[in-house]
Amino acid sequence: MKAIVYSEFGPPDVLRLEDVTRPEPKRGEILVLVRATSVNFGDIIARSFGSVTPRGFHMPLLFWLIAKMDMGWRRPKMRILGNEFAGEVVAVGRDVTRFKPGDQVFGFRQRFGAYAEYISLSEKAPVAHKPANLSWEEAAVLPYGAIMALPLLRRARLRPGQRILINGASGGIGAAAVQIAKHLGADVTAVCGGARLGYVRALGADRAIDYAEQDFTRNGETYDVIFDILGLTPFSRGRHSLAPRGVLLYASFKARHLLAMLRTSLSGGRKAVCALAPGSLEDLLAVKGLVEAGKIKAIVDKRFPLEQAAEAHRYVETGQRKGTVAIILGA
């Protein structure tokens, strides 16, 4: 089969099209003919992980070490990127009960592999029947961000009428968070780069702030929840933008954020919360329901064929995208 592979960490040019062995489904696995995949933050980080230092990593040192052992110290261990996908089941292994050949599916594979014509994964993984109201590429760019955002927002206990600010609102997690927060009845302020202000407004944000033009911690506004996707706001600064019992929720965090969570957990006022999302099948099924109800949508900015994966990565890294970026395979 055709696949985009990389044998060294580096810029987009390390990605190349090659013929590789097609996987076969083992017991409990399904084989999916990939119709579309995405270029997300995880793909960019994994491709360039050789230059990602502990300081530049958005999680504590222990997480960096685990990621380094998983991804490879000098060369990539997982040579095919892509962890979001949409496609058609073409074969199933023994004892598979959830799917049959011909089923249209979408999902998320933690260990990558979707930049290829076929991908195999456990039927117990976060994979579900594709919502009929989504195209292949729309279905392929949703899973990761949505199954991260949904459980994290549950931790914040967001309620109708509350005010939430989402810092990093144009990425996969942020874009899903904007829509889920609106579904929950919140007033949403989105913070992102200027090129994507229209994008987050189209997702439903009530207000959009260009982080290069305005520091939200100094505009005098307060919020019940601040959802910081990349952990860029120190609690010492962000606390002044929280309501008296507000929560600063971190999807990515360092030791200083954990210390702030420990310190504020002992008080009854403003709190820092560091949380990890499980990336579960249950959450994907919940997301599927929200998509089918019209509460979550995907806005695809550009589509690239598989052989132009390097160009797709290069475009994302320009910072000029105005939505998600999909890689299309086949018809």
Please summarize what this structure is.
By secondary structure, this protein is of the alpha/beta class. The protein contains 10 helices and 15 strands.
Describe the structure.
The chain is of the alpha/beta class and 331 residues long. The chain folds into two domains: 2-142 and 298-328, Medium-chain alcohol dehydrogenases, catalytic domain (Quinone Oxidoreductase, Chain A, domain 1, Alpha-Beta Complex), CATH 3.90.180.10; 144-274, Rossmann fold. 27% of the residues lie in helices and 26% in strands. The protein has ten helices and 15 strands. The strands form three sheets. Strands 3, 4, 5, 6, 7, 14 and 15 form a seven-stranded mixed beta sheet that branches. Helix 10 (309-317) links the parallel strand 14 and strand 15. Helix 4 (143-156) crosses helix 5. The two termini are 16 Å apart. The model has no long low-confidence stretch (mean pLDDT 95).
The share of residues in helices is 25-40%
Ends apart, CA distance between termini: 16 Å
CATH architecture of the largest domain: Alpha-Beta Complex
Shape designation: globular
- Mind summarizing the main beta sheet? 7 strands, mixed
Structural class: alpha/beta
In total, how many beta strands? 15
Q: What is the CATH domain class of the largest domain? A: Alpha Beta
Q: What kind of oligomer do you see?
A: single chain
The CATH superfamily of the largest domain turns out to be: Medium-chain alcohol dehydrogenases, catalytic domain
Beta-strand residue percentage: 25-35%
CATH topology of the largest domain: Quinone Oxidoreductase, Chain A, domain 1
Total separate domains: 2
Give the radius of gyration. Answer: 20 Å
Low-confidence stretches: none
SSE run: EEEHHEEEEHHEHEHEEHEHEHEHE
Mean pLDDT: 95
